[in-house]
Design a protein that fits this description.
CATH superfamily: MetI-like
CATH class: Mainly Alpha
Number of domains: 1
CATH architecture: Orthogonal Bundle
Shape: flat
Radius of gyration: 20 Å
Oligomer: single chain
Order of helices and strands: HHHHHHH
Largest sheet: none
Number of strands: 0
């Protein structure tokens, strides 16, 4: 538990571009395990994916831990234990299911962070993508392309949040209407 909290704190403390540069130095220059940039094979994807996912994993893991601990203190969890239900049944069916609403909310909101981080990650790792295209549009003063890229990011963020809202009804039956 302490080690996971420490790793989550480190993941939250490092900005995406700095983590990307550190990963490039360690795994591309020092150990020579992965290529520095480009998009040729799956090996080109490992370092950008790690740099982009680390802050999100840290936030979601901290949220999961705190929400699970909060739900474990509820009366219905004590009742489930008192009934003699097994550990797995209590944790998965009762605790995790009731803890998922805030976790899914955070995951949906993290999508915006992933899009912003993708701009930095694609630039640091020379990865072709919409984020890098937006950066190039800024430098070229191509406002139409910039507006299109921002609109694509905004539309995908709205769609992800709609999916998150719809998923609430499947996760928690109490949120269903009429």
């Amino acid at each position: 538990d302490v080690a996971m909290r420490l790793l989550a704190l480190v993941g939250l403390s490092m900005p995406v571009f700095w983590l990307g540069l550190v990963l490039i130095y360690i795994f591309a220059y020092y150990f020579r395990l992965f290529p520095v940039g480009g998009a040729g094979s799956w090996r080109h994807l490992v370092l950008p994916a790690l740099a982009l996912a680390a802050p999100s994993i840290a936030i979601v893991s901290r949220m999961t831990r705190s929400t699970m601990l909060e739900v474990l203190r509820e009366d219905y969890i004590r009742t489930a234990w008192a009934k003699g239900l097994g550990h797995r049944l209590v944790v998965v069916r009762h605790t995790l299911r009731n803890a998922l609403i805030p976790i899914v909310t955070v995951v949906g909101l993290q999508f915006g962070q992933l899009m912003g981080g993708a701009v930095l990650t694609e630039t640091v790792f020379a990865w072709p993508g919409l984020g890098r295209l937006i950066v190039q549009a800024i430098f070229a003063r191509d406002y139409v392309l910039l507006q299109g890229g921002v609109l694509a990011f905004a539309l995908s963020f709205v769609l992800i949040n709609a999916v998150v809202d719809i998923s609430y009804a499947y996760i928690d039956p109490r949120t269903r209407t009429g």
